[in-house]
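SUBJECT: protein chain
CONTENTS: sequence, structure tokens:
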Amino acid sequence: MSETTSRALVRQGPMAVDRPDDSLASVMSIIERAAKDSSIDVDKMDRLLGMAERMEARRAEKEFNGAFVSLQTRMSKVKATRAVPNDDGTVRYTYAPLEAIMDQMRPEAEQLGFAMSFSEAPSVEGKITAVFILRHVGGHKESFPYTVRIGQGPPKTSDSQKDGSAHMYARRGAVCAALNVIVTGMDADARNEGGVVSKEQADDLRRRVRETASDEAAFLKFSGAKTFEEISTSKFCILDQALRRKERTV
């Protein structure tokens, strides 16, 4: 390759990959044209290609990060929409199940160029790890794992039901942790002001505090209650997420 051709290739390469709207394919086109010269320096072409790939990856990551920050901002608060009734038909508390969170998030995510999916990571016995995956139209993706214990579940719950419940909890936790989601409207109904968690929820929190060797007195002080049965429904989501973070390290 002549000195003039070599200099032209060096000048064109960085210019091609510096422009945000250029793709790796355009850089490859430049290399292919230069390769017609039988004396082309293959090592230089490899370095140029490697540089182009790195710049393309950085561009895609930068686009992902910008869109991800916007998604976190838009999803900072999710409304609790599903009601759990008392025996007399009144609403005990409301919460946001995974499908409700996804329904609220999907339009925002699609508008910002994200595709969402889930997978599973290898888990140790008695635990399940769900992985929330965000893929951006720019080419970059990120994975967010979340691990939960497989609990006992309600009375007469089958092993499959226990596994299914743990899967849903893990997926919900992965989404909430990735996007810093805060569920609002836990006690929107005036009748529920000061409402407390159910017996099953109180028992579950107590069990998990002990399994993670957490300070029970400090946990109750943080919850603002004297006993697990007196914990307010408005604090349940925060306490649940705090325990899940602790469970991932146990």
